Amino acid sequence: MVYHEYRKYTEPIEDREWTIVDDTTKTILGFDCIMATANYHGRNWTAWFTPEVPMNTGPWKLLGLPGLILEAVDSTSQHHFTANGIQSVNLPITKVYEPYSYENTTRREFLKLCRYRYDNFQGMSDMHFGGNGPRHSQEKIDYESGKDGFELLETDYK
């Protein structure tokens, strides 16, 4: 098998099954936000959205509520998104996959590769830099990867 650096996958935009908790609110960036919960790609999420900004989107792949999601946290608190501002801009959306050539793969295989790279950061660095990367190969790279208990955003790929 030839190792290919760049991979991509496509996935449908599916509905998220949110449960809105009407009586639980908080203020974020001056907006009144309502709490909602959902299970998505193996994680239990709590999100805070504001109907004052009528967009059904939010951070990462979290979407589908009747207002912009300004904060979201998973039940383990490993992943936490919080808006720090809202700004209206008129910029063109550029293509994501240019200028490289990407090999198509599946979501599951892509995430398995991400997990492998996370768990084997030193070996991946040695492979890319021939064992003589930015640091001496004898020195273990002190990096966030490989920490016990850390899991990717999506856990349903196993």
Written description of the protein model:
The chain has 158 residues and is an alpha+beta fold. It has two domains: 19-82, no CATH class; 105-158, no CATH class. It is 14% helix and 27% strand. The chain contains two helices and seven strands; from the N terminus they run E-E-E-E-E-E-E-H-H. It has helices at 107-119, 121-129; strands at residues 7-8, 19-28, 31-40, 43-50, 68-74, 80-82, 103-104. The strands form two sheets. A five-stranded antiparallel beta sheet has the order 2-3-4-5-6, with no helix packed on it. Strands 1-7 form a two-stranded parallel sheet. The longest helix is centred in the C-terminal third of the chain and has 13 residues, at 107-119. It starts with 6 loop residues before the first strand and ends in a 29-residue tail after the last helix. 13% of the residues are buried. The model is unreliable at 135-146 (pLDDT under 50).
Summarize the structure.
This protein has 158 residues and is of the alpha+beta class.
Which keywords apply here?
158 residues, alpha+beta, 2 domains, 5-stranded antiparallel β-sheet, two-stranded parallel ribbon, 2 helices, 7 strands, globular
Itemize the secondary structure elements and their pairings.
Layout: E1 7-8, E2 19-28, E3 31-40, E4 43-50, E5 68-74, E6 80-82, E7 103-104, H1 107-119, H2 121-129
Parallel strand pairs: 1-7
Antiparallel strand pairs: 2-3, 3-4, 4-5, 5-6
